[in-house]
Design goal:
The two termini are 36 Å apart. Helix content is 37%, strand content 27%. Helix 2 packs across helix 3 and helix 5 packs across helix 6. It folds into 3 domains: 100 residues, Nucleotidyltransferase, domain 5, CATH 3.30.420; 96 residues, Nucleotidyltransferase, domain 5, CATH 3.30.420.40; 69 residues, Actin, Chain A, domain 4 (Alpha-Beta Complex), CATH 3.90.640.10. It is flat and about 65 Å long. Strand 12 and strand 13 form a beta hairpin. It is α+β, with helices and mostly antiparallel strands.
Length: 341
């Protein structure tokens, strides 16, 4: 049985989430580190650093040390994880907690060992790794221990894991570098091309959250967006419509659905039949995009639903692995992998 202070960690591209046995989610903060480039020192981590995105002076930079499922800066990931774990559980001198951490599928073996080393330095006694789609499935209570096909699509900020699960394994799966960040970039490109207005990442994210839809909006709603006029070079505020955001998101949404279809096409026929019967479950922060479930159904004719709290699914799955480690042992680090790139 896990100790009370043992933790589950979701190391995501945009957020770090930590849960503790018996207490649920105890930390949810942006995976951002603010760095003073001139002095090469960390100025802020998490929510405080996120508030600086797009507002830092020339000598400071707000950085997300993970991008598209890969570690960009080992030292900054170490700083980020150490700070988050310390905030969540404090420093332990005599007793060292155990951790189950979910990592992006794109992380290679060397980076996996590095993350385990980072967690040890942060005060963990032992760290075990859990693949994101497996963790997401556990977090929503999906049963995949029998010879029956279940499909889960975990849409993170930097990457999307698409997996068909059966007999406690990923039977067919892939990881594509498309997620919430790609949606934001698409909005930035569209607004720049149509309105000659350069907006920042945070503004694009706000447009996505407030106006974004994967299906054509029934009513047109607008939101003011402030950026730099590319013609005059001066600040300018323009109303951006929900139709604009829908048009911007059509290409990435179609690419996501095509990737889901490609995985289904590689799935053994009997398991594919199970998926057509039971449907697809969406998890991850990107699953909150309005109309995405309907868009998947319209194109694939497969029932589709999103988790109740899609962003929390992975970390809750890590918590499930802590609750019943003997039964979960085969799912943790060191298991056989069946990914096809």
């Amino acid at each position: 049985m896990a100790r009370v202070r043992d933790i589950g960690v979701d190391l995501g591209t945009s957020h770090v989430l930590i849960c503790m046995r018996g207490r649920g989610i105890i930390l949810r903060e942006p995976a951002v580190v603010a760095v003073d480039k001139e002095q090469s020192r960390v100025m802020a981590v998490g929510e405080e650093a996120y508030r600086l995105v797009g507002r830092t002076p020339g000598s400071m930079q707000a950085i997300r040390p993970l991008r598209q499922g890969s570690v960009l800066d080992y030292d900054l990931v170490k700083t980020l994880l150490t700070e988050m774990v310390t905030r969540a559980v404090g420093r332990h001198v005599f007793s060292r907690p155990r951790a189950v951490i979910s990592v992006p599928t794109g992380v290679n073996e060397m980076e996996r060992r590095s993350i385990i080393s980072i967690m040890f330095d942060a005060g963990m006694r032992r760290t075990q790794l859990l693949e994101r789609p497996i963790a997401a499935a556990l977090g929503i209570g999906m049963r995949f221990d029998e010879a029956y096909g279940s499909m889960i699509v975990d849409i993170g900020a930097g990457a999307t894991d698409i997996a068909v699960l059966s007999m406690n394994e990923v039977t067919v799966g892939t990881c594509i570098p498309l997620g919430g960040d790609y949606f934001d970039d698409a909005i930035i490109r569209y607004v720049r091309k149509k309105h000659s207005l350069l907006i920042g990442e945070r503004t694009a994210e706000e447009l996505k959250i407030n106006l974004g839809s994967a299906i054509e909006p029934a009513d047109t709603v607008t939101m003011d967006a402030t950026g730099r006029n590319l013609i005059t070079g001066l600040p300018k505020t323009l109303p951006i419509s929900s139709r604009d955001v829908y048009d911007a998101l059509r290409e990435p949404v179609n690419a996501l659905i095509e990737a889901i279809q490609a995985v289904i096409e590689r799935t053994p026929p009997q398991l594919a039949a199970d998926i057509f019967e039971e449907g697809i479950i969406l998890t991850g922060g990107g699953a909150a995009l309005s109309g995405l479930q309907d868009a998947v159904y319209q194109q694939l004719r497969i029932p589709c639903a999103a988790a109740e709290d899609p962003q929390a699914s992975v970390v809750l799955g890590c918590g499930q692995a802590l609750e019943n480690t003997p039964a979960m042992r085969a799912l943790l680090s060191g298991t056989k992998r069946h990914w096809r790139r």
